[in-house]
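Report of the visiting student (M.T.), summer placement. My assignment was to run the structure pipeline on a short list of targets and document each run. The first record concerns Nucleoside phosphorylase domain-containing protein.
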Amino acid sequence: MVLPKDIPSSAENYMDSQTLTKLPISSILIIIAMQTEALPLVEKFQLSEDQKSVFPKEVPWVRYQGIYRNLQINLIWPGKDLALGVDSVGTISASLVTYASIQALHPDLIINAGTAGGFKAKGASIGDVFLVSECAFHDRRIPIPVFDLYGVGLKQAWKTPNLHKELDLKVGKLSTGDSLDMSAQDESSIVANDATVKDMEGAAVAYVADIFKVPAIFLKAVTDIVDGEKPTAEEFLQNLATVSAALDQAVTKVIDFISGKCIHEL
Ligand code: SAH
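After the run finished, the structure tokens were exported:
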């Protein structure tokens, strides 16, 4: 929490966490896995790339930052894989950047925004943007009591009833795994997770946010229909640019809504 300018920073010592959560949100961390998804938002919020990184010099992670409507925005993109040059998608990079960003930037709220596969049987269509109610993993099968639950790693998103009412976004559960395709085993876990959307980062971000008790919300825009006719990779690439635009619009509306509110008013 970054205190408003008129409160001396020493006041933080005298404030309990209850008081702090009644202050308006001042610092938002946006985590986005792919450059195509991130750059339109960098432009929209007029963010600038960090010249002196808050991260270790070895990592490819990129921080864009700026002030938008009184909010300190930090947008973190895990960058391109150092060996292969593609976006560092997936749970490993997502959890590492979430951890390091929380440590370095102390956000009041995390927004994980990205594209996802959607299930038409659960009401998803191309271009829909979902506000996620809860996240779980579908590729961590450990059939031993209690480890099974650890593997699923179910986490609730921060509850945002007012945001939901105001913006009229679809709400659904998210299932996360490290593959773009879906094996038969993944499919049965996704059904067990009751998921409407499927991605490669959300539950990893949720895991780290939960450790540090930072409220987190997840906005996922559907690029491909998993239970449809078209091959996922082809459909994903076809729709990535247009759906990223829909995602960016939704993120902007969400940030506009957040501006001036405290965390319990969302
Ligand atoms: N072929 C792509 C690879 C991107 S991986 C490329 O050329 O860049 C897919 C990214 O989009 C991940 O960040 C993931 O979170 C999201 N995604 C979109 N559709 C998905 C699906 N059906 N399953 C899993 N992740 C999906």
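The longest strand covers residues 109-118. Residues 33-34, 87, 89, 114-117, 180, 198-201, 223-224, 226, 232-233, 236-237 surround S-adenosyl-L-homocysteine (CB under 6 Å). I thank the supervising group for their guidance throughout the placement.
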